[in-house]
Design goal:
Number of domains: 1
Shape: globular
CATH architecture: 2-Layer Sandwich
Helix content: 25-40%
CATH superfamily: RutC-like
Number of strands: 6
Distance between the termini: 6 Å
CATH class: Alpha Beta
Largest sheet: 4 strands, mixed
Number of helices: 3
Strand content: 25-35%
Order of helices and strands: EHEEHEHEE
Radius of gyration: 14 Å
Length: 129
């Protein structure tokens, strides 16, 4: 597969995403449901800390990707839903580096509520190889 990140403006790279990702010759695509800070048994998180929930959601996403024989570096598109955009932006910087050097296209959406009232963030991903 050939992957080309398209960034007509360089500023998006400092936020950990590309404006677009062009794929050609991809053999496999994995569409991941939104991953949250739920436990392995589906229980809601006990923490209200955005950084902790974001870290757990990314770890859960990593588990789903591994089940599809893919990794974080295979992500080409992320959609992040959050109940607190400011808290997410404050916490996101520490995780954005884990996406480099393949920065996915990304959308951030503020929402009123997620599946459980305890949830602060949900991350949906598309990965390709």
């Amino acid at each position: 597969m050939q992957r080309t990140d398209r960034n007509p403006w360089e500023w998006s790279k400092t936020f950990g995403f590309s404006q677009a990702v062009e794929l050609s010759g991809a053999e496999r695509t994995l569409l991941c449901s939104g991953q949250t800070a739920t436990g392995p048994d589906g229980t809601p998180p006990t923490t209200t800390d955005m950084a902790e929930q974001l870290t757990t959601a990314f770890a859960n996403l990593g588990t789903v990707l591994a089940a599809g024989d893919m990794t974080i570096s295979d992500i080409v598109k992320l959609t992040v839903y959050t109940t607190d955009v400011d808290a997410l932006l404050a916490a996101y910087g520490s995780l954005a580096g884990s996406l480099a050097p393949n920065l996915p296209a990304m959308t951030l959406i503020g929402v009123h509520r997620l599946a459980f009232p305890e949830l602060l963030v949900e991350i949906e991903a598309t990965a390709a190889r």
